[in-house]
Amino acid sequence: MKTIAVLGSANMDLVVRQPRLPQPGETIFGTDFATVPGGKGLNQAVAAARQGAVVNFVGAVGDDAYGTALLDLMADASIGIESVARSAQPTGTAHISVVDSGENSIVVVSGANATVTALTDAATRLIERSSVLVMQCELPVPVLEEAIAVARAADVFTVLTPAPVMPLPAGFLASVDLVVPNQIEATELTGEADPVRAAEALSAGKTWAIVTLGAEGSIIAHDGTVLGLAPARPVQAVDTTAAGDTFVGGVVARLAGAATGGATTGEAEGERMGPVSEADMVEAVRWATVASSISVTRNGATSSMPTYAEVASLLT
């Protein structure tokens, strides 16, 4: 059994739908408001679990109503929560404006997520027995460095979504097995405006890189060479929130061999990933592209993520 550990943020998303973004100093009316569980870590964990992967979460939520709601969601999604701490800090929140075109802007208040500065012994053991470690940049960088060191020592495949983009230690990206930025993030990380050149730079040194391009698809690269452009699946988007996280969850679920819709929490020793072939990665991206395309036709973050059966029905 291959298992996935997600080290990341868990937020409650406070989502306002509105016709457009206001100008500085301007007040406008919104058309809808909702609270939706989110955070890049939680989003990716739920996305992978819904694709049939065995997922455990490492992070923190507040000892408040939002924290309880997020833990309940993880439990309902069969995500292991033994390494989720309850913090005196409030649960993290994301304040999301979604305009009528489907595009969004987001302000994150880290809250309890900022307290995850080091791995507990239990979290270390969880990562060591996992097959894949998934991370983002919504937690303090020192704990990400620590987790990568633990994963590399245990031969665990590591995946990073470098968002939000921030200064990273020298060699940090090169120490990750797969990095998945969007085009803007790839440019900020490499200084290359051309996404192909950015993908080549990010994948140097036997790293995998997938640069997502929204409606244009995604670029797959490995060891400094672009392998191709994976086309997007055309849909009418209503909300792009968590589209990238749905994509990452789909990729890691397929790489870990998820092939049913029945996720269960995993306490057993995870199998090692072994070498990832070009065919493996192309198939994972194909699956994830469809998952992401479904998510943008629905509102919200975790609420928009499709199940294994929904994706499979479009690919078989």
TrEMBL record:
ATP binds at N182, T212, L213, G214, A215, E216, G217, G244, D245. Pathway: Carbohydrate metabolism; D-ribose degradation; D-ribose 5-phosphate from beta-D-ribopyranose: step 2/2. Its cofactor is Mg(2+). The keyword Nucleotide-binding applies. GO terms for molecular function: ATP binding; metal ion binding; ribokinase activity. GO terms for cellular component: cytosol. Its EC number is 2.7.1.15. Its main location: cytoplasm. InterPro entries: Carboh/pur_kinase_PfkB_CS (IPR002173), PfkB_dom (IPR011611), Ribo/fructo_kinase (IPR002139), Ribokinase (IPR011877), Ribokinase-like (IPR029056). Residues 1-307 form the Carbohydrate kinase PfkB domain. The active site is at D245 (proton acceptor). Homodimer. Catalyzes the phosphorylation of ribose at O-5 in a reaction requiring ATP and magnesium. The resulting D-ribose-5-phosphate can then be used either for sythesis of nucleotides, histidine, and tryptophan, or as a component of the pentose phosphate pathway. This is Ribokinase. It comes from Cryobacterium tepidiphilum.
